Task: inverse folding
């Protein structure tokens, strides 16, 4: 099946997916959701982020997929695990999870020629009222953005919805990283910033698949890129949260390919 393509201002192709291709992307992102649930069940005080990475990698491989992050631009692990002040792209290692941590887990799969990419931030035991609210608001900001992901809208409608909601709570919206198109490659056009103006940016069309992934900080929005080449943390070392959905654009609204219910049901059992 050939790809239908359209061209935008900067000459970057946005690949429109067929229904069959969207189902393969759904298969990938449901597997990512199940892998996030599996990792989530093992997040407790004393576990290292390296152990969590192994659980993710094994689960992905046991289900016939490849971990999409491993080796991506030299990335050395299957999961990105970002704790507290780490925003995204934390490299799994010797860091030990503690009671009260918030832990972002970002996972990718490669299965049947397509990529899955979704993320969830977990609370470890009692994280306190402030952190609980940061998690709730970040997840709700993702939902506000997702609600705008329908044909005829523009990327800026998503961006503005995320930004307005998060900032209305006094939180920071990280600007250095953004969401993206998703398909046979993990990062396709268009970029999907978490800040912006309604009515601006690329037009959303039936068959586009994008990842929306707000990164929201409790304090200042400024981030620092660590010298390991990957980890992004808040400059003020206050906590940050990150949730990511893969979403197909349809005429009648967003078709969310990621399933957080799988994760939340696993945590409640
Ligand atoms: N979800 C991440 C993103 O969209 C992917 C992690 S980058 C990797 O940027 F290198 F770890 F793969
Ligand atoms: Co992503």
Result:
């Amino acid at each position: 099946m050939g790809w239908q393509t359209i061209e935008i201002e900067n000459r970057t192709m946005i690949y429109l997916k067929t229904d069959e291709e969207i189902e393969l992307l759904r298969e990938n992102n449901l597997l990512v959701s199940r892998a996030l649930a599996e990792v989530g069940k093992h997040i407790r005080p004393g576990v290292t982020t390296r152990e969590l990475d192994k659980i993710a990698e094994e689960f992905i491989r046991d289900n016939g997929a490849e971990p999409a992050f491993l080796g991506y631009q030299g990335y050395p692990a299957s999961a990105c695990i970002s704790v507290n002040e780490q925003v995204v792209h934390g490299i799994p290692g010797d860091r030990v999870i503690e009671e009260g941590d918030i832990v972002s887990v970002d996972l990718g799969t490669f299965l049947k020629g397509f990529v899955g990419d979704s993320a969830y931030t977990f609370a470890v035991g009692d994280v306190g009222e402030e952190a609980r609210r940061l998690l709730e608001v970040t997840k709700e900001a993702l939902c506000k953005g997702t609600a705008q992901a329908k044909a005829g809208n523009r990327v800026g409608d998503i961006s503005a919805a995320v930004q307005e909601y998060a900032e209305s709570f006094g939180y920071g919206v990280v600007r250095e990283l953004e969401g993206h198109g998703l398909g046979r490659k993990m990062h396709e056009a268009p970029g999907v910033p978490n800040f912006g103006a309604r009515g601006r940016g690329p037009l959303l069309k039936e068959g586009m698949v994008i990842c929306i992934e707000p990164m929201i900080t409790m304090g200042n929005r400024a981030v620092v890129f660590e010298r390991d080449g990957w980890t992004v943390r808040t400059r003020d070392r206050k906590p940050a949260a990150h949730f990511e959905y893969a979403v197909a654009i349809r005429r009648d609204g967003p078709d969310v390919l990621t399933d957080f219910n799988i994760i939340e049901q696993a945590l409640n059992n």
User: Anything to note?
Assistant: The helical segments are 19-42, 49-62, 128-147, 155-167, 260-267. Confidence is low (pLDDT under 50) at residues 7-11. The chain has five helices and 17 strands.
